Amino acid sequence: MSVNKHLTELLKELHLPVFREYYQELAKKAAADELSYEEYLFELAQRECELRRVNKVARLVKASKLPLKKTLDTFELNRLPLKIRRQVKVLAEGGFADRRENILAFGKPGSGKTHLLCGICHALARQGRKVYFGTCDLMVQGLLRAKEELVLDKLLKKLGKFDVLMIDDFGYVKQNREEMEVLFTLLAYRYERGSVLITSNLPFSKWEVIFKDPMTTAAAIDRLVHHSVILELNVPSYRAEQARKRKKQGQ
Predict the structure, then answer these.
(1) 8 A C-beta contact, residue 118 and residue 130
(2) What is the per-residue DSSP string for 23-42?
(3) b/e map of 128-152 (b: 16 or more CB within 10 Å)?
(4) Four-residue CA torsion sign, 171, 177, 183, 188
(5) pLDDT in tens for each of the 251 residues of the chain?
(6) Is 65 helix (H, G, I), strand (E, B) or coil?
(7) Which of 57, 129, 224, 250 stands 20 to 30 A from 190 (CA)?
(8) CB neighbours of 62 closer than 8 A, spacing ≥ 6?
(9) How far is 59 from 97, CA to CA, in rounded Å?
(10) Rounded CA gap, 71 and 80, in Å?
(11) Chain centre to alpha carbon of residue 51
(12) Sheet of 228-232: strands edge to edge?
């Protein structure tokens, strides 16, 4: 077996695909440019690490269940007040996740709550953080099934492995008491263990329709607000704006 073939097999065994693909090409370049052994090795290692970073981000985004197109790049930030734009820039850096702080976004339907928080989550995934997205309704149904199958603790621990848990349309569906209990259990479990991102059309004053009694409502709000950033998106509906533009263009 030739040295090149043997080396290729070793690099395959070591799971170094970039080394395997480019070592000969870069060796010729290194010889032509009179690079040192260290510079040649650095170039290969740099390319290998870059591929691994790209693959890791792709895996994290896939595992997150985030809507792929709802990134900050596709969000019209100029629709938001300057104060919120500045907050978003800081939040996208991810420090809040290190501090296990929550983000609570309130606003009318179409104000961009979901897109904005998904965009922040995409930014976190690109940094290598574990993120999970789900609508409140589907997340509650999953928790309820886990409780009925006596594996709720297991599911909570699984969700606890994510740095950030995003719950979309919080309170959009009015839960019954059993559903309310598992939702509260999730919030209590996440408290100071990891960040929770929530979008809601309902202000805190109306959360009693979700949790059914004042004590539970107050306890849930207290856990979420204790370490949190609150974004109030008092802006016109983006969908309504787009519909008006299309109608105007069609005239």
Answers:
(1) no
(2) HHHHHHHHHHTT--HHHHHH
(3) ebbbbbbbbbebbebbbebbeeeeb
(4) positive
(5) 577 888 888 888 888 898 998 889 999 998 998 889 999 999 999 999 999 999 999 999 999 999 999 999 999 999 899 999 999 999 999 999 999 999 999 998 888 999 999 999 999 999 999 999 999 999 999 999 999 999 999 999 999 999 999 999 997 666 688 888 999 999 999 999 999 999 999 999 989 888 888 999 999 999 999 999 999 998 776 665 665 666 666 65
(6) coil
(7) 57
(8) none
(9) 19
(10) 15
(11) 21
(12) 131-135, 164-168, 195-200, 102-106, 228-232
Nearest to 166 by CA among 114, 206, 216: 114
Give Cβ neighbours of residue 96 (< 8 Å, ≥ 6 apart).
103, 195, 229
- Hey, which residues does 134 pair with through a beta bridge? 167
Whether 233 contacts 103, CB under 8 Å: no
The three-class DSSP label of residue 147 is: helix
Rounded Cα–Cα distance for residues 68 and 70 (Å): 6
- In angstroms, the Cα distances linking 131 to 3, 118, 159 are 44, 10, 9
Question: Residue 94: helix, strand or coil by DSSP?
Answer: coil
199: left (phi over 0), alpha (psi -120 to 50) or beta: beta
For strands 228-232 and 131-135, give the pairing.
unpaired
Nearest of 205, 207, 208, 197 to residue 231 by alpha carbon: 197
